[in-house]
Amino acid sequence: MSAPAVPSLRFLGAAEEVTGSSFRVDTDHARFLVDCGLFQGGGDADDKNLGALDFDARAIDFVVVTHAHIDHSGLLPRLAARGFRGPIYATPPTVDLLGVMLPDSAHIQELDAEWAQERAQRDSARSRHCGGGASGVRSVVPLYTVPDAERCLRQLRPVSYDTFSEPAASVRFRFRNAGHILGSAILELWVDTPGGQRKLVFSGDLGQPGRPVMDDPAPIAEADILVVESTYGNRLHKSLATTYDEFAHVPATTLPRGNVVIPAFAVGRTQEVLHVLADLVREDRAPDLTIFVDSPLASRATEITAKYAATLDRESRDLAQWQSQHKERVRVVFTESPQESMATNRVTRGAVIIAASGMCEGGRIRHHLRHNLSRAECAIVFTGFQVRATLGRQIVDGALRVRLFREDVAVRASVHTIGGLSAHADQAALLGWLSAFARPPAQTYVVHGERETAMTFAAVIRERLLWPAVELPARGVRVSIG
């Protein structure tokens, strides 16, 4: 392998935007990626995903994955399909979660390609009917397939928190708990360069301290180069107490007449929402509940969460014990088949329905929105960040009508945004985590945030922490780490 002229870090995604997290590190001895995520939301996401891996995948020695969310891992099967054969390092829970998430993502890619193919054929037929002449229909190929994802899984290598690994000469790393979702990690990375050893820290996605289920993010004392997320870098979350109050109000006022529909990421958010709802019932702040979890992926993720129950916080373990003794008070129904999902749509009141995707861009949640969004007696509860241009963002921003399954659907249900359950640290929590550094990194790069948000957070870091070198990298930019 010919060594690069200067050891470097390249920002492949999540630069001036939230999704597509991926960073390439080139040193004298190795070429590797930190995360390999899917771009989501916006009309150009498909084009970004098609062009994301603009390098020879066979030249990549290994990949390190901070956590299982698809915007951090969803291009791994495509990387492998393009020739990458090296190991993929992740924490044991992340390895287990990827085992269900990547095949599920591949299945969605296949379905999207089928729908696009059918749409192209209809458009071609319509054009011929209107006198446009005969034209061939180009075959639509999925971004990757289920077999691609399954082959990729064989490259996964589990590495526990706080364990040093040396995947290549002069490269060493360690995972620390990020408190974001099960298995999420902060990455500490040491690389040898001609100018001496450099320590890079990638925050991954940081959790909000004091949240249910997950422990707080681990403090980091030092870094030469820091790459930090900024999803909520311009705002503060409501307190957990306020969040509980708001959440308790919705089922109490809605369920006698209608349903409560909660779009939620299958991994992390669904399990937190289940925790909060059960806790509210335990405290007699909500009525006994029937909760439908309409996501096969969420069902698998909940099973994996139970497998690692010993790693969760004390409150979660105590609540799980209470639930096992009061199963009649919180009835959780995991729907698997399409038939079971459709049966849920016949329930007109008294149900809490949790379904993916969290931003309403696909999955079964769209069917539940079609059946409940136009009913004033129902409620839609958003508990997570909604990327710009997604259906979820349209609803949160107050759209009066939205497009679902080629139909205009009126938004009459009450819409609630409960930010205190966010899996991402808010501005105060991010600053608190950064304050643990003994001295400012030589260079800090703010990523994983919409441009305006990242700019605001970068300015806050400079002004409040007095860190001198804080930048917003653009996608594709390469910087020296030597």
**End-to-end span in angstroms?**
19 Å
What is the topology, as strand order, of the major beta sheet?
Answer: 6-5-4-3-2-1-22
Low-confidence stretches: none
| H/I helix tally | 14
Averaged pLDDT = 92
| Helix percent band | 25-40%
Could you describe the 3D structure shown?
The chain is an alpha/beta fold and 482 residues long. Helix content is 33%, strand content 21%. The chain is built from 14 helices and 22 strands. It has helices spanning 45-51, 70-73, 76-81, 92-129, 146-153, 240-254, 269-282, 296-307, 314-325, 338-344, 365-372, 391-396, 427-434, 451-465; strands at 8-13, 22-26, 31-36, 62-64, 88-90, 156-158, 165-168, 171-177, 185-193, 196-202, 225-229, 260-263, 289-293, 330-334, 352-355, 379-382, 401-404, 407-410, 414-417, 443-447, 470-471, 478-480. The strands form four sheets. A seven-stranded mixed β-sheet has the order 6-5-4-3-2-1-22. A hairpin with a 7-residue loop joins strand 8 (171-177) and strand 9 (185-193). Helix 7 crosses helix 9 (314-325). The longest helix is centred in the N-terminal third of the chain and has 38 residues, at 92-129. The model has no long low-confidence stretch (mean pLDDT 92).
Helix-strand layout with pairing:
Elements: E1 8-13, E2 22-26, E3 31-36, H1 45-51, E4 62-64, H2 70-73, H3 76-81, E5 88-90, H4 92-129, H5 146-153, E6 156-158, E7 165-168, E8 171-177, E9 185-193, E10 196-202, E11 225-229, H6 240-254, E12 260-263, H7 269-282, E13 289-293, H8 296-307, H9 314-325, E14 330-334, H10 338-344, E15 352-355, H11 365-372, E16 379-382, H12 391-396, E17 401-404, E18 407-410, E19 414-417, H13 427-434, E20 443-447, H14 451-465, E21 470-471, E22 478-480
Parallel strand pairs: 3-4, 4-5, 5-6, 10-11, 11-20, 12-15, 12-16, 13-14, 13-15, 16-19, 20-21
Antiparallel strand pairs: 1-2, 1-22, 2-3, 7-8, 8-9, 9-10, 17-18
Helix pairs in contact: 4-5, 4-8, 7-9
